[in-house]
């Protein structure tokens, strides 16, 4: 047995250690945020185990209910939602929870209340469970100002007010990507230790990319700038090579690839969905937060994504996010369209 290798494994930067190191930079910190993140991490580990067992445990299939978005709920969606609600409430650090699966926000009872609001999609891309494609959990965290009764307006804030965001992807490995507002870090679950280990420190998205990611099945309903941009990806006029198309249809997986390799992820508005398809609070905001923290951009077709002010908890928005230069191109095309009008 290689004892020296085992000893080295105890010197790993786990997510708990990482969060506590960050906390020590703020002497006034009470540790509440670290406790909250610990409970989110626990929820992710639990869902990861459930996803891995799903095919064997008959968790795949429909639970017979339809969620607020009109999507039929998979059993795993329901389970994941319960896991995260329980983990977040039991942390004693949350006051309002907004889940993609629940029509109304959950207000935590006064005795277990804290000062954080968590918005989350417990299992994004769940229609892909049956075929083994990567799926994930997305979350964002707001802080409520001390000394007032929490209301729904505490979560109906622009994304730029978030204090942290992240996602956990359940795929060939279980990867948790997190930003607390000072860069982006990626952790991978080591199943033998049951710990998330820092494997992708300080992620920076390349300034330009060779990949575009969009559902081209919607092309006939796109607006002018989106159609022009995709045309340019396929048939560049400046002599550069054409971009590759990669589209998984699971936002977490598509954004994860974009973050690591560069490029752009698009889910534009179209004639069928004039307000876009992706939800602002728990899909667009957390992913836009991570992109900006990694040096990229996120744009709605009209404005910076993180400046949006949602009117309802399940509002939708178009989104273009990824490498800085790619999003600049999209912005220029939309600006030209406005000038024409």
UniProtKB/TrEMBL annotation:
This is Fructose-1,6-bisphosphatase, cytosolic. SUPFAM superfamilies: Carbohydrate phosphatase (SSF56655). It comes from Dovyalis caffra. The keyword Cytoplasm applies. GO terms for cellular component: cytosol. Belongs to the FBPase class 1 family. Residues 205-334 form the Fructose-1-6-bisphosphatase class 1 C-terminal domain. Its EC number is 3.1.3.11. It is found in: Cytoplasm. Gene3D superfamilies: 3.40.190.80, Fructose-1,6-Bisphosphatase, subunit A, domain 1. GO terms for biological process: fructose 1,6-bisphosphate metabolic process; fructose 6-phosphate metabolic process; fructose metabolic process; gluconeogenesis; photosynthesis; sucrose biosynthetic process. Its cofactor is Mg(2+). GO terms for molecular function: fructose 1,6-bisphosphate 1-phosphatase activity; metal ion binding. Residues 13-201 form the Fructose-1-6-bisphosphatase class I N-terminal domain.
């Amino acid at each position: 047995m290689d004892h020296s290798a085992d000893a080295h494994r105890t010197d790993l930067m786990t997510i708990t250690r990482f969060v506590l190191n960050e906390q020590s930079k703020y002497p006034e910190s009470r540790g509440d945020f670290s406790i909250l993140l610990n409970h989110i991490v626990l929820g992710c580990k639990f869902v990861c185990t459930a996803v891995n067992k799903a095919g064997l445990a008959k968790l795949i299939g429909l639970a017979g209910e339809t969620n607020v978005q009109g999507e039929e709920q998979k059993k795993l969606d329901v389970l994941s939602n319960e896991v995260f609600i329980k983990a977040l409430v039991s942390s004693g650090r949350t006051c309002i929870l907004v889940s993609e699966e629940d029509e109304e926000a959950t207000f935590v009872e006064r005795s277990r209340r804290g000062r954080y609001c968590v918005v989350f999609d417990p299992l994004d891309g769940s229609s892909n469970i049956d075929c083994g494609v990567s799926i994930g959990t997305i979350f964002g965290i707001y802080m409520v100002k001390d000394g007032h009764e929490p209301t729904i307006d505490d979560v109906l804030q622009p994304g730029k007010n978030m204090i942290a965001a992240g996602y956990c992807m359940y795929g060939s490995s279980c990867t948790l990507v997190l930003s607390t507002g000072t860069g982006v870090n990626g952790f991978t679950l080591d199943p033998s230790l049951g710990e998330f280990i820092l494997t992708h420190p300080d992620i920076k998205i390349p300034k330009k990319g060779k990949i575009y990611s969009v559902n081209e099945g919607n092309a006939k309903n796109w607006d002018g700038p989106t159609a022009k941009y995709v045309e340019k990806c396929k048939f560049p006029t400046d002599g550069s090579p054409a971009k590759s198309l990669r589209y998984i249809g699971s936002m977490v997986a598509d954004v994860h690839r974009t973050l690591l390799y560069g490029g752009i992820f698009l889910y534009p508005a179209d004639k069928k969905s004039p307000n876009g398809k992706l939800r602002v609070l728990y899909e667009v905001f957390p992913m836009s937060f991570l992109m900006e923290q990694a040096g990229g951009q996120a744009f709605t077709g009209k404005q910076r994504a993180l400046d949006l002010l949602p009117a309802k908890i399940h509002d939708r928005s178009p989104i273009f996010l990824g490498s800085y230069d790619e999003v600049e191109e999209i912005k220029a095309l939309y600006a030209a369209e406005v000038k024409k009008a």
